[in-house]
Structures are given as structure tokens and as C-alpha cells.
Amino acid sequence: MFRRRGLARLAAGEGGGFGGGGGGARGRLGQVLTLVLMREDPVLCHHLADLGVQPGLYACTWVETAFTAGPRGLPQAVRAAAWDAWLATGRPAVLLQVAVAIIIISRHLLLHMEEGETIQYLTNLSRSEETLGKDAVLSCALNIDIEDDVMMKLI
């Protein structure tokens, strides 16, 4: 029951948990990331919601800074590949696709972590080079479809 209520609150942009949805652009970005992750990997999305780990805690910073968030950002090769994909396509959705891909690729780790470990992992990806190879991230990201109507929720 909590799982459904937690996801409903996330989709509605309500606060709660770490990095609460809240309003404004950050809240909308968190909603979009949650919707896309729910479609791509519902089990993982439910797990993160059950832990109270919302996209506002980690992924919004990734996207808002185009993955350049200091030494705790992405490994250099992944960051460069994300920028290459963004510049090659000219589509801001690529940044969202990369954010969701990072979560999906880390699935095998995240499903076995508790709240604190999950937060630490997702806010310090620079140490995840062996898990987050640039080819794997880009391959996964480019297979994630983010429809225009979903992107419009950000405006």
C-alpha cells in the first residue's frame, strides 16, 4: 500500500522523503524522471520510492548541471559521452535519458541497498566507473523513449 501511495505522491509532485518533489521546475523534473523510470523499470522505481529516495535528491542535480556537478559527478568518460550525445542530437531529452539510464544500469546494485547506501551511491557517481561504462550508459539511454508530451511537463 505504501508503494502505491508513495508513487502517487511522487507523480503528483508532493514532498516527502529525501529530495522531495516540491513545486517549480525541480519538482516537475522529478515527476518526469519518476514517470519515465516507472515505465522503464517499475520494480526499481517502486524500490526507490519505498526507500523514500526521490529523483529530486540526485537526478535533478545531474540534469540541471548537465552532469558537471563537481568531483561527485559522473566519471569523466560518461560525462563526455552524455555531452556528445546531447550536442549531436540537439535534444535536451538526452540528458533525461542518460539520467534514467544511469539508474537502470545501476539496478543490480540499487535493489540490494538500503536508503543510506542508495543515497551515497547516487550522489557520488564518480567512483562508479566500473559500473557506469560510457558505452553501456549511452546504449541504454538511446533506447529510452521520452515522448514530447512528457517533455512538455517540464515547461
From TrEMBL:
<protein>
    <recommendedName>
        <fullName>Rab-GAP TBC domain-containing protein</fullName>
    </recommendedName>
</protein>
<dbReference type="Pfam" id="PF00566">
    <property type="entry name" value="RabGAP-TBC"/>
</dbReference>
<feature type="domain" description="Rab-GAP TBC">
    <location>
        <begin position="31"/>
        <end position="108"/>
    </location>
</feature>
<dbReference type="InterPro" id="IPR035969">
    <property type="entry name" value="Rab-GAP_TBC_sf"/>
</dbReference>
<dbReference type="InterPro" id="IPR000195">
    <property type="entry name" value="Rab-GAP-TBC_dom"/>
</dbReference>
